[in-house]
Design a protein that fits this description.
The chain has 330 residues and is an alpha/beta fold. It contains 13 helices and eight strands. The longest helix has 25 residues.
Length: 330
């Protein structure tokens, strides 16, 4: 069934390509239009895809040989995809002066949350765990901020789409000083344009300059939760589809920067259980094994974008055809 809520997680340049291709493949195989989804939750790379859908754009499709591929005007990835193409050494640099004990604490917290996911107390543990880890996030985010301002191109690309907060779109970022999550577009959230919110949600700590909104500095929403599933509007029988490019903890901790994401990634199971406890139906999809091998640990490698986009499209067509056949049989 088409989802009521579409949750698009973080995943860097390659995650954005995979999610776009997967959605396009499902649309073409199942004759579905994701632009009509009732609610979108976007985090980091996922916020780019969510904003484009909310603005009425179709998911990006592979067209022609990779060497001849060009992005269309108004596509937020056209100006923003390359600016996030950072090397693994750049991602590692901010951690060089962090004591090993601090990094070990992050890994232990990730393992603790993953273990709690199997218990009946998961919803309570999610709230306690997230609150308790805010101080750790704030301490790490307080280290030397990034200075790269090239995400201004993402801001301009999203602005051109005309995306706005129309009640359907939520974009997740993290307050750098407090280490806590902020959901732009939600009631009570600071006022911001969609372009500014997406720019903040994509601002990888220590590389890109924090984005200032209403006097506060914000960074990548993925350091709170890779998916932020728990904020999805959900009730009994709500259909939720979550695309999670970082479906494996092994991938999440493959680089020093990924250690901070380890906490975020390990909460996905807790968030899923929280929604299911409300009666929602949650389906999470990650890259197939073949695509995951292509993506590798460096999700910022823009040179692989077209291969991942094409692989995601093929995976989406398989899912769409399978689900369409199952629905017809039912």
């Amino acid at each position: 069934m088409p989802p009521d809520v579409l949750v698009l997680a973080s995943g860097g340049t390659l995650g954005e390509a995979w999610m776009s291709g997967l959605l396009a493949g499902i649309e073409d195989a199942a004759d579905h239009d994701f632009r009509k989804t009732e609610a979108f939750i976007g985090t980091s790379a996922g916020s780019l895809v969510a904003a484009a859908l909310a603005a009425g754009q179709r998911p990006r499709r592979p067209t022609g040989p990779p060497a001849r591929r060009t992005l269309g005007a108004g596509d937020p990835a056209a100006s923003g995809a390359d600016v996030a193409s950072e090397t693994a050494s750049q991602l590692a640099a901010p951690f060089l002066g962090i004591p090993r004990s601090a990094i070990t604490s992050i890994a232990r917290e990730a393992a603790r949350l993953a273990g709690i996911a199997a218990t009946p107390l998961a919803p309570m543990a999610l709230a306690i765990g997230s609150t308790g880890s805010s101080a750790m996030r704030a301490a790490l985010l307080g280290r030397a901020p990034g200075s790269d301002t090239s995400l201004d191109e993402i801001h301009d690309g999203v602005s051109e789409t005309g995306a706005r907060f129309d009640g359907r779109l939520r974009v997740v970022a993290v307050d750098r000083e407090s280490g806590r999550r902020v959901v732009f577009g939600a009631p009570g959230a600071p006022e911001a344009t969609v372009a500014k919110a997406v720019q903040a949600s994509c601002s990888v700590p220590w590389i890109f300059a924090p984005v200032r909104i209403d006097g506060r500095e914000y960074v990548d929403g993925g350091v709170w939760s890779n998916t932020n599933l728990d904020i999805a509007p959900a009730a009994r029988q709500t259909e939720i589809l979550c695309l999670n490019p970082i479906a494996s903890l092994d991938i999440a901790i493959a680089s020093p920067f990924g250690l901070l994401r380890a906490i975020a990634g390990s909460t996905a199971a807790l968030e899923t259980m929280t929604l299911r406890s409300r009666g929602a139906k949650v389906r999470m999809i990650g890259p197939s094994q073949e695509i995951a091998r292509v993506m590798g640990p460096n999700l910022m490698d823009a040179s692989l974008r077209e291969r991942v986009l094409t692989g995601g499209y093929a995976q989406g067509r398989e899912i769409g055809a399978r689900d369409g056949g199952s629905k017809a049989a039912g």
